[in-house]
Amino acid sequence: MEVQTATDPAKLTETEEKHIPIIEIEGTEVVVKIGKKAHPMEEDHFIEWIELYQNSHLLSRKNLRPGRKPETLFHLRGEEGSLYAIAFCNKHGAWQSEEIF
Length: 101
Ligand SMILES: [Fe+2]
Prior knowledge:
This protein is mainly β. The chain has one helix at about 15-20; strands spanning about 5, 20-25, 30-35, 45-55, 55-65, 70-75, 85-90, 95.
């Protein structure tokens, strides 16, 4: 599976703004939103799933449905470390956020 990333994180294209995951950390809870401009969640075009990786290990994959918000909540395992998220759009494929620490 080819995973796309932002060409220039400081200047996202229109497509990137709707697909690059936004990771918000609060304590051990992490909300992942797709994306900076909310991705459509229509029957024929929606985010199918979001995965969150902590220290390169998959924490969880959450499946989404049309009509829901393009976001989901994850719970971190205690230790600290780097995180990245991958979102899968049924039309535009997989998109990964920048890794953050
Ligand atoms: Fe899309």
